[in-house]
Amino acid sequence: MGRSVTTQRKAFNTLFAWGIGLLIFFPILWTILTSFKTEATAIADPPVIFFFDWTVENYVVVQERSNYLRFLWNSVIIAGGSTVLGIIIAVPAAWSMAFVPSRRTKDILLWMLSTKMLPAVGVLYPIYLIFIKLGILDTRIGLVVVMMFINLPIIVWMLYTYFREIPGEILEAARMDGASLRAEIIHVLTPMAIPGIASTVLLNFILAWNEAFWTLNLTAAKAAPLTAFIASYSSPEGLFYAKLSAASVMAIAPILVMGWFSQKQLVRGLTFGAVK
Amino acid sequence: MGRITLDQVSKSFGEVEVIPPLDLTIDDGEFVVFVGPSGCGKSTLLRLIAGLEDVSSGEIRIDREPATHLPPSKRGLAMVFQSYALYPHMSVRKNIAFPMKMAGVPEDEQARKIADAATALNLTDYLDRRPGQLSGGQRQRVAIGRAIVREPAAFLFDEPLSNLDAALRVGMRLEISELHKRLATTMIYVTHDQVEAMTMADKIVVLRDGLIEQVGSPLDLYRAPRNLFVAGFIGSPRMNFVTGAGDRMGGAPTIGVRPEHIMASKESGPWKGTVGVSEHLGSDTFLHVHDTGLAETLTVRVGGEFDARHGDTVFLTPDDEKIHRFDADGSRIA
Amino acid sequence: MATQHSRSAARIMMAPAVILLLGWMLIPLTMTVVFSFKKYLPMRGGDLGWVGFENYARFVTSSSFWPAVATTLIVVGGVLLITVILGVLLALLLDQPMWGQGIVRLLVISPFFVMPTVSALVWKNMFMDPVNGIFAHLWKFFGAQPIEWLSNASVTSIVMIVSWQWLPFATLILLTAIQSLDSEQLEAAEMDGAKAVSRFGYIILPHLARAITIVVLIQTIFLLSIFAEIFVTTQGSFGTRTLTYLIYQRVLESQNVGLGSAGGVYAIILANIVALFLMRIVGKNLDT
After folding, report:
1. C102 exposed, middle or buried (CB, 10 Å; 0-12, 13-18, 19+)?
2. Which of B115, B287, C2, C171 is deepest in the core (most CB within 10 A)?
């Protein structure tokens, strides 16, 4: 806040904040540590924190026993595919709403938002039934489509808020400079919109990766992504702490890192531009 | 080359008519300034000419060719925006090249024109920078450079100096005027600043609420404002409007006298008042005189050496030759 | 700011998104409403005809309905209370000058990126397990009898897990809101002699009011439909059956689609009431 603070005060803040921060982060840290222990050390009483024989055996076993890579691949396809599809549909829509607003633009945006509010469980059976009829139950393409639909409103909204920050005068300047609509989009709009599109992609990839209602209910063996893979560990025979931890770390690590990069956009994306 | 004619052009946004039908002719090579308070429709009018807005009715012709339904890119005009509207992801060079690239101008010709424009606008050292790394004045020059290379039928300026600080504004004003002399291309310039209008224009169009109040050369407007609005708008400081000044009224309900057409003296004069604030500019002093019984405040321009303090009594003598008379509707009485 | 030409292009570009979302919303919604008026048991005879409002009546009179409402309210209310209060405090803390602020921020927001099934599983086994969990070790260290969290304090456990997941969201949004506060306002208040507590009460909190409302509304919508956390931990037993979970069980476990659909319609109405408030705020923001 641009105000001078004593070093003592700052040191106290630092200590206190780091303490709280580590406390909140502890479950993740503990999971990471446990994933490198042997099963025996993992349940040692009293618990061992740092000083144990580190091993990567759990990671190897998880991959061998449960074919982790296949679930990972499903997650990548579902999250990536739905995001790409969503972006392709949303970019033109967001463009027209941001730069050629009509009296109905606001209503359309709010209506799109309202579809996001629809409780999934309310339409679970119809979707289930449609999936069976179309033969896409437990397929990746089915989940790509569902994820695309549930995130489309957020994608449109995020892009819309980013596009709206591009000054309309610049697009008008392009028009005055003799650019056709196509040239305007290719040479002026797209390069300026890329940062916004990138953060939209990132956030939606994260949301789709972590989604755990449709992925649990619409997949079985073939198309199950990591959310379902982890859920399968809740059955008794899977109860090995170190392996459970290794599997968990593999499921969350890539997304955690992406999340750290997208934290600023997160606020905008999840509050539909109401908090920036 | 750049004759622009508006014939009964009007613009409505929904139910609201922002510009009632108007006629206007801009001759080739003219420097025309649209001036008026904010919301008077001057920018809308410019955007109608640019093609960035559709006209609701009427006809626009550029060089006698109908242009009413041409998209902006086909009208052969160039525009300099208030925010400069430079492409932030392109270097200065690419910004200036963009309109030529769109027109399919050969590379070597592009390079030559960029070099010419950069020299003329003092931008040669900055060609590889991004707009974000330039000062306001430099950005302004890039925007102008981008307009020049198009070799347009006319330049459109939308309040181009309002984002610059006062000193730069004066400098850029001169540069744009010089550019006009050099290129002799039609320029249409929108501003709310009457000083810009007076100093730059061949022809001023004063607008209020979408209506043209008066069209004329700067001195026409200064010497013979057609109504109270124009009289008050053109000239700085503002014209004094006086009521109840006896014989001097010549039967008119309101008369106007400019501050520079009133003489002040410590000894005698027909009007008497008390000095409120005196603003010393060095060369001139502006006295704000109260308690004259003629107007709330009378502003008077006196020489820089005139000594008057707060509370002093002064006597004022208007130059009867230069009194403007207005009737009850505010129109000038010839 | 547009011409006729660009307006018709805009309409065409908007069409795919609008048409697809319209289909995505209307088709399943219509089906749910239709099912809700039918006796529909896929495993036991399928579509057994129209029954009027019977499913609606049965859903609210069944013995599981009111407990599910109570659980839903406790979970949503509890999580909201915890995340908003702790979120405000954490946001205030993170806004203070300190070393390594960026890293602390990353630590605090991390739980949000952990997929719900992982956090549920980690908490269930590694923290709340009555024998090997961290909590059991802690309790034993202080000489207390370890708690069987997920069976004896089941709803509390769910609230804890979900709060941990959503605290980062609340903190991050409130922190963003605090940082948008004009520091000159605070300095003016300080010049006017306001102490830290009154600066918080009179300036910071009112400034946060809008952000808090948004946090409450958005979280409510998401919390009403939490699923994986319950699915992985208790499967709805020990009193952790929320409305969402109850509907899920009716539809997929007992395969009573008519009854579940009636519940679904209730859930949709409930969510829409909350959404209406949220949209008002978001809509107002669009005008500026």
Report:
1. exposed
2. C171
Is residue C146 assigned to a domain?
yes
Q: Do residues A75 and A23 both lie within one domain?
A: no
Please give the pLDDT value at position C1: 45
Q: Which two three-digit tokens encode residue C281?
A: 């705020």
Contacts of A188 in chain B (CB under 8 A): 87
Give how far B34 is from chain A: nearest CA, Å.
20
Interface contacts A/B by beta carbons within 8 Å: 64
Domain boundaries, position B267: 238-326
Round to whole Å and give the CA distance between B256 and B239: 6
Instruction: Give the mean model confidence (pLDDT) for residues B147-165.
Output: 91
Which residues on B lie below 8 Å from A183 (Cβ)? 102
pLDDT digits (tens, 9 = 90+) for C209-263: 888 988 888 888 889 888 888 988 888 888 889 888 999 988 888 888 899 999 9
Q: For residue C123, give the DSSP letter.
A: I
Joined together, the tokens standing for residue A221 give 């063996």
Tell me if A2 is assigned to some domain. Answer: no
End-to-end Cα, chain B, rounded Å: 37
- Whether residue C215 contacts residue C173, with contact meaning beta carbons closer than 8 Å, is answered with yes
Which residues span the domain enclosing A44?
A: 7-59
Q: Shortest CA distance to B39 belongs to which of B163, B210, B190?
A: B210
List CB contacts (< 8 A) between A253 and chain C.
none
Structure tokens at C240: 């952790």
Indicate if B14 and B129 belong to the same structural domain. Answer: yes
Measured between CA atoms, the residue of chain C closest to residue A11 is: C98
List the alpha helices (DSSP H) in chain C.
4-36, 54-61, 65-95, 101-109, 116-122, 134-141, 149-152, 154-179, 183-191, 196-199, 205-224, 228-233, 243-248, 257-287
SS3 B316: strand
> How close does chain B come to C9, measured CA to CA in Å?
14
* The model's pTM: 0.80
Chain C stretch 1-30, residues whose beta carbon is closer than 8 A to a beta carbon of chain B: 1-5
Contacts of A172 in chain B (CB under 8 A): 50, 52, 72, 79, 81, 85
B68 to chain C: closest CA residue: C3
Containing structural domain, residue C140: 40-60+77-287
Q: Do A117 and C14 touch (CB under 8 A)?
A: no
- Same domain for B84 and B103, yes or no, is yes
Q: What is the ipTM of this complex?
A: 0.86
CB atoms A173 and B79 under 8 Å: yes
Query: With 90 as the cut, is the pLDDT of residue B155 above it?
Result: yes
Chain B residues near residue C1 by CB distance under 8 angstroms:
52-53
